[in-house]
Design a protein that fits this description.
The complex is a heterodimer. Chain A has helices at 2-22, 26-46, 50-74, 89-106, 123-136, 141-149, 151-172. By secondary structure, chain A is mostly helical. Chain B is elongated. The N and C termini of chain B lie far apart (53 Å). The chains are: A mainly alpha, B mainly alpha.
């Protein structure tokens, strides 16, 4: 049952990504990308990662889509009668080569859901799960790590967002245009 | 090969997303679509990371409600940070694309190259 659900969702996600790749109209590609993000958010829920799913749905599907829409409002939306783009064979061969090489390595990864996999059984995972509540009084371990154990990481993330906001303002400032 | 689809399905999907993302970045002439391709590649990496933390029968990492096994919270934290950084990156890239459009009057890579040669 679980496997069937994964199958349907992952097929949807991959086909949405292919639609992004081959739809010629930018607006259609952006809509396909938003659907792709929501599909991935549901996969995160199946992987028991509700925090990541919420962020992906709100930020990945929401904010990113709005940014893309703002960008095509400020630029052009190339028209044309063809629905799909022509296949660019050079890049297609390189991408297929990458997929082929990486697929040969998949077998050496641990099975999905294996409780003895290096990540699930690592010392650090156990430490966080055992100590997050006694040490920080926060039940959600993800929040505890994000705000307490890796607080400086989150501070750095905030600095990145600030830098990006300033960069957008500097780049788009009208007076600088010559 | 087919048995990978029943045991490593998410890894296979994220590798396919790497391929599609790389194809869009390299093959699409439109600059906005290149940025969408970059986002697809990123999501492939996020899916890979979140999958590594999954444990069969594990509960979401919220302790104190009687569950015994939990999925690993660490990949979730790293990916939460990465998603926000990815959006910042997209915003800066789109701002640069808008400036390029103002300067060259096109978003098509080939047209921009021609304009550069003419200059």
């Amino acid at each position: 049952m679980q496997l069937l659900l994964y199958g349907v969702l992952l097929t949807f996600v991959v086909f949405a990504a292919l639609a992004v790749a081959f739809l010629r109209d930018i607006l259609s590609a952006i809509i396909a990308f938003a659907g792709f993000s929501f599909g991935v958010a549901i996969v995160y829920i199946l992987l028991r990662a509700p925090d990541v799913a919420l962020t992906e749905a709100a930020v990945g599907a929401g904010v990113t889509t709005v940014l893309f829409l703002l960008a095509i409002v400020r630029t052009v939306r190339p028209g044309g009668d063809r629905l799909f783009e022509r296949v660019a064979w050079g890049p297609a061969i390189i991408a297929t080569g990458l997929v082929g090489v990486l697929l040969t390595t998949v077998r050496s990864l641990p099975t999905i859901g294996d409780p003895n996999s290096p990540v699930a059984s690592s010392e650090i995972t156990r430490y966080y799960l055992e100590n997050a509540y006694p040490q920080t009084d926060v039940e959600n371990v993800v929040t505890a790590i994000l705000a307490a154990y890796r607080g400086f990481d989150t501070l750095g993330e905030a600095a990145v967002v600030l830098a990006a906001g300033l960069a957008v303002l500097v780049v788009l400032r009208k007076e600088v245009y010559v | 090969m087919m048995d990978l689809l029943t045991t490593h399905y998410n890894y296979v999907a994220s590798i396919l997303l790497f391929g599609i993302g790389l194809y869009v970045v390299m093959g699409s002439p439109n600059l906005v679509k290149k940025i969408i391709g970059m986002n697809i590649f990123q999501v492939g990496i996020f899916l890979f990371f979140v999958t590594t933390g999954y444990v069969d029968g594990g509960a979401p990492p919220v302790v104190g409600h009687g569950e015994e096994t939990f999925v690993s919270p660490l990949p979730h934290v790293l990916i939460l940070t990465a998603i926000v950084v990815g959006v910042s990156l997209t915003a800066v890239a789109l701002a640069l694309v808008i400036r390029i459009y103002d300067g060259y009057g096109s978003l098509d890579e080939d047209v921009i190259k021609e304009v550069q040669v003419d200059d």
